[in-house]
Design a protein that fits this description.
It is built from three helices and four strands; from the N terminus they run αββββαα. The protein is an alpha+beta fold. It has one domain.
Length: about 140
């Protein structure tokens, strides 16, 4: 579950930098990302959730140059620039993760959904749904 304790400014900055490094390593791990030109921290909750917007040099013209990355104590994911704000990106992310978790719980294949890089089992699906519920009820309304 996402923590709600108070952090000092230095601790908060460390958490943001740790999340940024995770997000940058993730986005640059894809062959379609030649390099990162710019990055912006959009929102976060301690070390548990970070939303970043990256301006990249794509490998070809079919790839967006602006990519959202969501990282933290949940499956990391990227989204294209069809999300125009960090809240939109977070809403799309929660929809994709909920779809994956529901498929797992209903015994359906996850092959045609967003690729989630955790073991598709009931425990992980329920834990992810708990985090998604918290994000929808507490995080999104706070930042809207």
């Amino acid at each position: 579950m996402i923590q709600t304790e108070h952090l000092s400014d230095i601790e908060e900055l460390r958490n943001i930098m740790d999340l940024y490094q995770e997000a940058e390593a993730y986005i640059t791990s894809f062959g379609w990302c030649k390099k990162v030109d710019n990055a912006w921290y959009a929102l976060g909750v301690y070390e548990q959730l970070g939303v970043f917007l990256f301006e990249i040099q794509p490998a070809n013209e079919a790839i967006d140059s602006m990519i959202w990355v969501i990282v933290g104590d949940l499956p990391t994911a990227y989204l294209d620039s069809s999300a125009t704000t960090e809240i939109e990106a977070l809403i799309i992310y929660t929809d994709l993760m909920e779809d994956w978790a529901r498929k797992v719980l209903e015994g359906e294949s996850t092959a045609d959904g967003y690729p989630v890089e955790i073991e598709p089992n009931e425990e992980n699906a329920r834990a992810l749904l708990d985090k998604i519920t918290f994000i929808r009820q507490e995080v999104i309304p706070t930042f809207e």
